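ZP: hey, is the 4'-deoxy-4'-aminopyridoxal-5'-phosphate complex queued? I don't see it on the tracker
AM: it wasn't, my bad. submitting now with these inputs:
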Amino acid sequence: MKDHPRELVYLDYPATTPCDSRVFEKMSPYFCTFFGNPHSKNHAHGWIADEAVDDAFASIAECLRVEPREITFTSGASESNILAIRGVMMRYKNSGKNHLITTQTEHKSVLSCCRQLEEEGYSLTYLSVNDQGIIDLNELLDKITDKTLLISIAVVNNETGVIQPMNEIGNICKNKGIYFHTDATQALGKMAIDIKLWNVALASFSSHKVYGPKGIGALYLRKDPAVKIKSFLVGGGQQGGIRGGTIPVPLCVGFGEACKIINENNGAEVEQITRLSGKLVQGILENVPLSKMNGNVENKVPHIVNIIFPFVEGESIAMGLEDICVATGSACSSSQLEPSHVLKAMGVDNVVIQSSIRFGIGRFTTETEIDYTIKKVTDTVQRLRDISPLWDMYNKGVNMEKIKWT
Ligand code: PMP
């Protein structure tokens, strides 16, 4: 392992969360003691494992206010997204409908699946968003054709935290007889999820974003009226043939416990995160000249905060913050050093996009960490600006908008 500063301030909760110790404790007996295969029907080890999986289904279903039989375990939200989108498009291939509508700001797991489907001959529409990150419902209505089979739009964007108008999209889908899939990964535990009210037919979730273990997620598949999908991991017919393979019992137990914790005291946690993120935003915007939040500031979840710091690169800020863990863009694409496709779709200028930092606040964030972060961000941005020729030009009154970048 590389050397790291001993005490780290973790502000990258949208990328992943630490496993809650209560979750870890609950999972632990299911590795060595209760190790049975839940699909073994002839002995007690199988029954114990099966019961544990059933309890997990029940807690997750309670959290989502759906039926346990509507949940399929997957390896995470990426797989749920792909299974939902590809599964519906391929299952109804012979119905004459081959059109899928999504947005330009979806998670890469959705977008790359859509690109593949496009290459395979399906018809795709990528909706634009406004400068607040929100889709235009009239554009959505305009783009629907009699070939539209599925609309896939995430509840919450993972880079900006902006929430899409779920009621309205769901009503459009219901009226037009179109399946509605939503990637609800960043919504779970952060806001009220109302699958029924939103007319959602399929929804994706991930355990490691809600203090559960990595490697497990869920796909909600509506039973009434039923939505059918083509399955890809046929295997031994487990999970009703939708996703074969032995169910990973400890991971299911962990995801179930994570949902149980959400069911028990979520209100207080969301309130605390809202307060801390409000303090962080206020502290940064007041202390760092020209800093600005990206995305709609009202219609968003509290745990994601995306701020631009003009005249300094996000990568340099992230490096300068040393013991504070933040993201530039999303974790999945930040290694690519390409401008965020989300901010680009929102019309943020290419140069400014590179100056953005995503802060993620979570269950274990403390007030002291927020105070420390405000100070360190302020000092780091100032230090970087002091050596930035662009900042110097700006201060000398050069009209930056007239500069032609090559
Ligand atoms: N969708 C969204 C909105 C996400 O934020 C993420 C995680 N970055 C995923 C999907 C993928 O989740 P997982 O890591 O469980 O595959």
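AM: back. The chain has a mean pLDDT of 94.
ZP: great, adding it to the tracker
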